[in-house]
């Protein structure tokens, strides 16, 4: 074993470079802090990924930590093992990482300011057994006097639903319910386990949804009923407006109260980081993890795939039309989906963005150097340290796969940046931005400026790489797409449809996942063109180089591998009624049409394959809206052809009608889907109120879904002869009966 270097201590992180055959090693630093190095790195699959045959193109990745089975240790065991009488235990439930990020930040800041150790726990690890054991421990005479404060960072989803990872936790508290209903508030049984808990709570939601912050509110009510004591007000973050500001305000109020609870005075954290050093990268060669490919392939059919354990699916189709990307992925035997579910995918950052940040950090020559960051176990934040990514890895891998390079810098991060400015004017300017919300909003939030942008502008900032990785760059998050195929028609192939996100700011901004898919498409096209010169296009072959270099450089001699995507199937509540005779109305402008393509294909398939041929009509009406019939009309040929066949009586039992609304059609007045709904009001009312029909709305949550809901209420007023209150109640009842479903984002 050769330890190459121990380079730096940053906020409790120690930066290691290690040699190929590093074994379990304890290093005594000058500070006397004991450090354990993880050894799994050097051999086995990591080495295989360094250029072994069969090394496929790594198109995306997720943290290894989530993939390697480890013996389960409950949060209570972890907390007890810390042996601290003052402790902060923070639970988060998160779908796309925000609640996790806030819990991490809260833990870190409280620890830095007050020296109280913290644990940050995914709420999926919480269980009645552990909580009951905690209660027993509290009541036992032998337990040392402990001042533990619990914190809850809870996101709400769907229509007042818990996140995927907190479904069991939610059921434990609120019975078999899967989403908010006002009945839950009344019926939830108090939990003795919480009787003497002291806690803080921050709920995350979005006020455009009907059940704003439902999970946080429900849990808070249950805690009050159980006898728990909340410190400060319950925070509520509104993702539609200013979640970050809501958090900062809540945190500023609650932290001093927590300190008072612990009997502590605040420390000064502003200078705490100044002693951190820049960790240079060594020229040593360690076989790094380049992604998770090999490991995932090994157990591809043996496990349940989920957000923490993706399946690497082969791309069987990827088309880029003028309107959208259409991706098809092969599923292995045993992995199934239902029509209307979602597929979650992981993408990676483009090479030019990786290089730009590496340059801004002064690390461009070190991009292919392996590194490892290991938490200093003695530091108070050790227990709350956010999980990073598999290490050792190269900086290129870390920046390409594991972090979000586009993320807009948060206000507190601007302040952190200021601490590393060498130039006093730049330091003052960064502190001014950090201290004044208006200036921050104008210069950073609104123009969506990233870490790279700021490092380029404030060139005297010498940001240690470890600080950038740990404190400045959020983890790359899964992206969800509604499945646009039918599970009946193609059970082993799942399709998704995505509009490539591209919009102007100070410069052209490109969505991470959709641009990456576009690049993969271009790479595949170029690869095909290499075999068929007639398909060649110069721009796509340039793309292939750009995309593939970062991943295949080390194995350039290998045959071109197939293309794959890390993905999992996320179940939804957005499914067609089982009764084929119930009429179905679908409202899906823009990308909101994606699941309806699956719905339409499903019913068409059912009509085709019904044995004996079903004669009962299956009625499907699609209200589709886009800008222009010749520009962004998704599935135009497919839908119009089917509607025409249906009108001609050629689709058997299927009666499919397409109603379109174009908003930017050659100077004609803007028409939206709700305008068309209103025009078809009598029929819509008859289907919903008289024929037991189902209404589905998919797409934009911020305005469209609410406008459609108002229109349906207006239709009930007009055709049902009721006043507005009665109409609202009737529509609410439709929802309660599961006949008005929304899938919005
Ligand atoms: C349940 C669910 C289902 C979904 N289904 C689909 C689907 O079927 N098809 C589909 O295409 N998408 C769907 N989405 C959205 C999808 O998950 C991604 O958010 C989307 O593709 C963008 O991802 P990206 O990585 O390309 O963009 P990102 O890198 O994540 O960038 C997107 C961000 O860019 C910003 N942005 C975008 N446009 C602008 C603008 N004009 N001005 C300013 N800022 C802007 C916004 O902050 C936005 O959040 C769904 C989302 C959810 C939650
Ligand atoms: N560059 C392009 O050609 C292009 C095309 C499609 C999408 N996009 C981008 O792709 C992303 C996803 O877009 P998307 O396809 O989901 O949606 P979208 O294209 O933004 O919108 C789909 C349709 O819904 C309309 N709409 C807007 N507000 C509405 C409301 N309150 N009620 C009902 N309909 C409403 C839009 O009209 P108006 O917008 O005309 O008002 C448009 O006709 C967005 O960022 C979008 O900007 C770009
Ligand atoms: C598909 C979808 C459904 C949502 N449903 C709700 C909801 O019913 N109520 C609510 O308050 N917020 C809702 N939200 C907003 C999220 O709670 C909010 O964006 C939150 O910040 C997400 O946190 P996370 O990143 O930790 O998952 C929804 C968001 C999405 C994308």
TrEMBL record:
What is one GO cellular-component annotation here? cytosol
Q: Does the keyword Oxidoreductase apply?
A: yes
Entry keyword annotation includes Flavoprotein:
yes
Annotated InterPro entries: CysJ-like_FAD-binding, FAD-bd_FR_type, Flavdoxin-like, Flavodoxin/NO_synth, Flavoprot_Pyr_Nucl_cyt_Rdtase, Flavoprotein-like_sf, FNR_nucleotide-bd, NADPH_Cyt_P450_Rdtase_alpha
Cite the Pfam families for this sequence: FAD_binding_1, Flavodoxin_1, NAD_binding_1
What EC designation does it have? 1.6.2.4
Keywords, A to Z, come to: FAD, Flavoprotein, FMN, NADP, Oxidoreductase
Q: What class of enzyme is it?
A: oxidoreductase
Residue stretches making up the Flavodoxin-like domain: 88-255
FAD-binding FR-type domain location is 308-577
Give the coiled coil ranges. Answer: none
Q: Which cofactor does it need?
A: FMN; FAD
Q: Name one GO molecular function term.
A: NADPH-hemoprotein reductase activity
Q: What is this protein called?
A: NADPH--hemoprotein reductase
Q: Which organism is it from?
A: Caulochytrium protostelioides
């Amino acid at each position: 074993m050769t330890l190459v270097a121990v380079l730096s201590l940053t906020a409790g992180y120690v930066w290691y470079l290690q040699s190929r055959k590093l074994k379990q090693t304890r290093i005594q630093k000058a500070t006397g802090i004991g450090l354990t190095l993880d050894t799994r790195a050097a051999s086995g699959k990591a080495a295989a990924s360094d250029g072994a045959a069969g090394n496929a193109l790594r198109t995306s990745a997720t943290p290894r930590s989530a993939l390697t089975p480890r013996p389960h240790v409950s949060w209570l065991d972890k907390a007890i093992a810390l042996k601290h009488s003052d402790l902060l235990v923070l639970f988060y439930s998160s779908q796309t990482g925000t609640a996790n990020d806030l819990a991490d930040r809260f833990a870190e800041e409280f620890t830095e300011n007050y020296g109280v150790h913290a644990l940050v726990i995914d709420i999926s690890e919480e269980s009645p057994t552990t909580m009951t054991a905690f209660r027993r421990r509290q009541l036992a005479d032998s337990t040392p006097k402990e001042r533990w404060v619990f914190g809850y960072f809870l996101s709400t989803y769907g229509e007042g639903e818990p996140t995927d990872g907190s479904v069991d936790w939610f059921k434990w508290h609120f019975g078999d319910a899967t989403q908010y209903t006002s009945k839950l508030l009344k019926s939830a049984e108090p939990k003795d386990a919480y009787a003497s808990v002291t806690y803080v709570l921050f709920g995350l939601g979005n006020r455009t949804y009907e059940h704003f912050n439902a999970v946080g509110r429900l849990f808070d009510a249950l805690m009050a009923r159980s006898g728990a004591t909340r410190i400060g007000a319950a925070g509520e973050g509104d993702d539609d407006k200013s979640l970050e500001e809501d958090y900062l305000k809540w945190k500023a109020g609650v932290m001093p109260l927590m300190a008072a609870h612990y009997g502590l005075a605040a420390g000064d954290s502003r200078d705490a980081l100044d002693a951190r050093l820049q960790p240079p990268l060594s020229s040593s060669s360690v076989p790094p993890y380049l992604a998770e490919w090999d490991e995932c392939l090994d157990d591809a059919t043996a496990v349940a795939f989920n957000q923490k354990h993706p399946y690497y699916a082969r791309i069987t189709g990827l088309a880029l039309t003028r309107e959208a990307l259409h991706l098809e992925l092969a599923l292995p035997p045993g992995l199934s989906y239902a029509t209307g579910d979602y597929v979650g995918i992981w993408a990676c950052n483009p090479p030019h963005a990786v290089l730009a940040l590496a340059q801004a950090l002064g690390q461009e020559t070190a991009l292919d150097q392996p590194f490892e960051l290991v938490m200093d176990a003695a530091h108070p934040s050790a227990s709350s340290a956010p999980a990073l990514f598999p290490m050792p890895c190269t900086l290129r891998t870390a920046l390409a796969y594991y972090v979000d390079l586009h993320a807009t810098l948060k206000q507190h991060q601007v302040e952190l940046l200021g601490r590393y400015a060498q130039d006093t004017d730049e330091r003052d300017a960064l502190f001014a931005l950090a201290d004044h919300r208006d200036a921050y909003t104008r210069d950073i939030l609104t123009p969506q400026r990233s870490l790279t942008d700021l490092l380029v502008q404030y060139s005297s900032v010498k940001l240690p790489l470890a600080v950038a990785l740990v404190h400045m760059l959020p983890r790359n998050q899964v992206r969800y797409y509604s499945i646009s195929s039918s599970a009946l028609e193609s059970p082993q192939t799942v399709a998704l449809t995505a509009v490539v996100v591209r919009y102007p700011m100070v410069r052209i901004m490109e969505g991470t996942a959709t641009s990456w898919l576009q690049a993969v498409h271009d790479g595949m096209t170029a690869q095909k063109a290499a075999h068929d010169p007639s398909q060649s296009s110069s721009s796509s072959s340039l793309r292939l180089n750009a995309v593939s270099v970062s991943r295949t450089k080390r194995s350039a001699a290998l045959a071109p591998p197939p293309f794959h995507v890390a993905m999992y199937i996320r179940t939804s509540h957005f499914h067609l009624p089982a009764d084929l005779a119930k009429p179905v109305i679908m409202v899906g402008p823009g990308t909101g049409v994606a699941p309806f393509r699956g719905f339409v294909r499903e019913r068409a398939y059912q009509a085709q394959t019904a044995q004996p041929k079903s004669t009962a009509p299956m009625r499907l009406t699609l209200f589709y809206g886009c800008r222009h019939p010749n520009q962004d009309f998704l599935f135009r040929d497919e839908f119009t052809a089917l509607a025409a066949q249906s009108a001609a009586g050629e689709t058997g039992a299927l009666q499919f009608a397409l109603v379109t609304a174009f908003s930017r059609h050659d100077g004609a007045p803007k028409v939206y889907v709700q305008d068309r709904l209103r025009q078809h009001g009598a029929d819509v009312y008859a289907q919903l109120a008289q024929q037991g029909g189902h209404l589905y709305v998919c797409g934009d949550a911020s305005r469209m879904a609410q406008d459609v809901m108002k229109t349906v209420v207006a239709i009930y007023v007009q055709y049902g002869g009721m006043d507005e209150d009665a109409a609202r109640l009737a529509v609410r009842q439709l929802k309660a009966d599961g006949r008005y479903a929304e899938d919005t984002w």
